[in-house]
Amino acid sequence: MLQGLKTFLRTVEENDIDTIYQWYNDQEVNFWSSGAWPLNTLQSKDQIAVKFLDGSPDIYRYSILDENDHLIGTIGFKELNIPGRSATIYIVIGDKAYWGKGYGTDALIVFARFLFTQWNFHRLSLDTWDENIRAIKAYEKVGFKVEGRQREARYVLGNYHDAILMGLLSSEFLALHGK
């Protein structure tokens, strides 16, 4: 288990699936995590269990817990590029009671430190959509920088939005947060 100031990260367990399924069916959680409401909700609990427990060997998923071992979100990485020592990360704080309180930022710092120091990654990438300002600010606190914009790449509630592409180098992170 990885420990931060406010969060713990561990592998996803079978007991987590009911809660994760609820988040997938929560319009507000899906709206801010991906802008994909209602598309993500078209998965059954069994499909989500396979995705999170058995999943693809190319996608790594972890649970985010608070100080009291309460499941509050998920974090992970995909698109592993071994020669480039890079990956794309994602995070969802599914428990809305924890939004805007620094839990996501703490989990991202713990996770980035793990990936940079234990996996020896050189670079992490992520993306969000242009109206997800809360997420962009959290990513910037961790050290991510906006690297680009894909024009009208996201379709959210009948409107096109730009995708914001962000990246973080190991040297930048370690200078900001240490080992």
Structure description:
The protein has 179 residues and is of the alpha+beta class. The protein has one domain: Gcn5-related N-acetyltransferase (GNAT) (Aminopeptidase, 3-Layer(aba) Sandwich). The protein is 33% helix and 34% strand. It contains six helices and eight strands, in the order ββαααβββαβαββα. The protein has helices spanning 17-24, 27-34, 45-54, 103-117, 133-142, 170-177, and strands at 2-3, 8-11, 60-65, 71-81, 86-93, 123-129, 145-156, 159-169. The protein has an eight-stranded mixed β-sheet, sandwiched between helices. Strand 7 (145-156) and strand 8 form a beta hairpin. Helix 4 packs across helix 6 (170-177). The two termini are 17 Å apart. The relative contact order is 0.15. The model has no long low-confidence stretch (mean pLDDT 90). Residues 7-171 form the N-acetyltransferase domain. InterPro entries: Acyl_CoA_acyltransferase, GNAT_dom. Keywords: Transferase. One of its GO terms (molecular function) is acyltransferase activity, transferring groups other than amino-acyl groups. This is Protein N-acetyltransferase, RimJ/RimL family.
